[in-house]
Structures are given as structure tokens and as C-alpha cells.
Amino acid sequence: MRLIFLLFLSLASLSGRDNPFFPTDPNEKQTPTTNKVEALKPFSTQKISLPNSARAIKAVIIRYQNLDGSITNEELELNNKIDWHKPLVISHEKTPANQAGKKRLTTINAKFIKFRPFENTLKLVTEDKMLRHFMLASPPRVVMDFSRDTSFRPKNFVVNKPPYKNIRMGNHDHYYRVVIELDGQYRYKLQLNEKGTTIVCY
Fold first, then answer.
1. One domain, residues 126 and 165
2. Of the residues 5, 29, 134, 163, which has the maximum number of CB atoms within 10 A of its CB?
3. Residue 65 maps to a domain
4. Are residues 139 and 191 in the same domain?
């Protein structure tokens, strides 16, 4: 009986922990605490810019420090459409809403075709038949071919109205090509009616 008891003590000492103040699982997450007080500047406003592929905001995660020094994550579930051109603003104070004025409609006239950019649309007005259209990447651009026997020097029009950067035109045999360069990654669709063709980028 005494031999069994001594054997039990020996096995218990072998399975003992070196430091009982650390977790048995090294991957187990612990909540750190501290008495140290950091000298932090007051938070006011922070802007966050998103990549041009962003289309919706799904959640916001705020990591904050508690009074005892522990770190906590707070997640706010969202499901909203966003415009990546405008940065997200985190503010600790209430700011008045910006009253954006209406954008002025401008027309780019290339004789036998006109371009009218407005917000995320670009209207093309021409009597020429569109032969094909497709999108290319790097840089992202929409390519459109129109039927016409004509000759002209290459043209370049600076648009600089997001999402449209510039429009290039080149002459080919029996058709001319319109290249619409975009400022980021988009999908596009065409809306056709008797008044022309409208490109919608989204």
C-alpha cells in the first residue's frame, strides 16, 4: 500500500506545471490588464479610404481599451452601399451634413459623337452604329467601336469626373474606336434608347 502511494506521488510530480500562473494551452487567448496610464491625444476625426473595388460596407469593428487596460472589440453589423471615392469618417463629435451642390452637366463634342459625363454615367450621342464593346484591365477601360468611314488624327479628351478619367479616339478601317479610361475597377452596363447610348459604371 505504501509503495502504491509513493508511486502516485511520483506520477503527480511529473505531471505538475512549471508555472501555474500561465495557461496550460499556449494558444489560449488571455485578456491583458495593466495599471499603466497612457498619455493619449483626444480623438476627434479620422478618415479611412477604401480601395476602388469596394462597393458595400458589411461591418465596423472598433478595438478600444477599457478602464482596467483590457482590450475589447466591438462589432457593428452593417450592410450598406458605399461610394469608395468618398472616405469613411469616424468622428467623436457631431458635424453638420455637407450640402453638396448639383454637378454641372458638360458636353465633349467630337463632331460625329458627343460625350456627356454625369456622376456614374456617360452618355454617348451619335448616329453611327456601335459594332462592339468590351472592358479591358490595367488600366481599367471601356472600349467601344463605331462604324464610319472617316479619317482623323487621334483625339484625347480629359474628363476627370469620377469614375471617368479621359476619353481617347482612334481611326481604323471602316470604324473608329472610343476608349474610356476609368479611375478604378468597375462593372459596367449599357442603356440604349433613341437618344443615344449611356454607360453606367457601378
1. yes
2. 163
3. yes
4. yes
Same domain assignment for residues 51 and 79: yes
**Contact residues for 113 (Cβ-Cβ < 8 A; gap 6+):** 124, 125, 126, 128, 146, 169, 178
Which cell goes with 95?
A: 458635424
Pair 120, 82 in one domain = no
Separation CA 200–CA 189 (nearest Å): 5
pLDDT tens readout for residues 100-135? 444 556 899 998 999 999 999 999 999 999 999 999
Torsion of CA 150, 166, 140, 170, to 10 degrees: 20
Number of structural domains found in the chain: 2
Note if the pTM is more than 0.85.
no
Rounded Cα distance, 144 and 76, in Å: 43
* Spatial distance between the Cα atoms of 51 and 86, rounded to a whole number of angstroms: 11
Helix (H) or strand (E) holding 166: strand 164-172
The enclosing domain of 163 has a CATH number of: 2.60.40.3500
Cell 499603466 belongs to 36
- Pair 184, 164: CB distance under 8 Å: no
